Input
Amino acid sequence: MQVGDKLPEADLIKLGSDGPEAVSVSSLTAGRKVILFAVPGAYTPTCDSAHVPSFMRTQDAFAAKGVDEIVCVSVNDPFVMKAWGESTGAAAAGITMLGDPGSAFTKAMGMDFDAPPAGLHGRSKRYALYAEDGVVKVLHAEENPGVCEVSGGEAMLDAI
Output
């Protein structure tokens, strides 16, 4: 995946009032400006203490730039993503928390990796992107999944 590419079609999952609901990437991004950031795992240290909070801090500034929605994606089930969104305050802040439990989107993005020593298998690399109408305009991927520097909210805000 690189700047100028169309985001791959896949269904992400959210926990709705009637249980798990599919959210297609195309319906999420069609005709909209979206920030999508992906993390290796809900509740993991850097994701929980740095990555999610960086987008909570910058959400109003993104809205001022015309961003319609900020979405967090992780290779976790929708129950975990809902609980994580509640525990971090991300859901209350308006960040959409979506699971990619089968890793279909993550693999289509070319962002999957394994880190057996940490117990992470089939997870997503840490990255953030800005897309307009489903086309990637800015893509910041971390070299190391344990850091949140180029993929944080402030770095993305500076880039758009």
Notes: Helices lie at 25-29, 45-64, 78-88, 104-109, 153-159. Strands lie at 11-16, 19-24, 33-39, 69-74, 96-99, 112-115, 120-124, 127-132, 135-141.
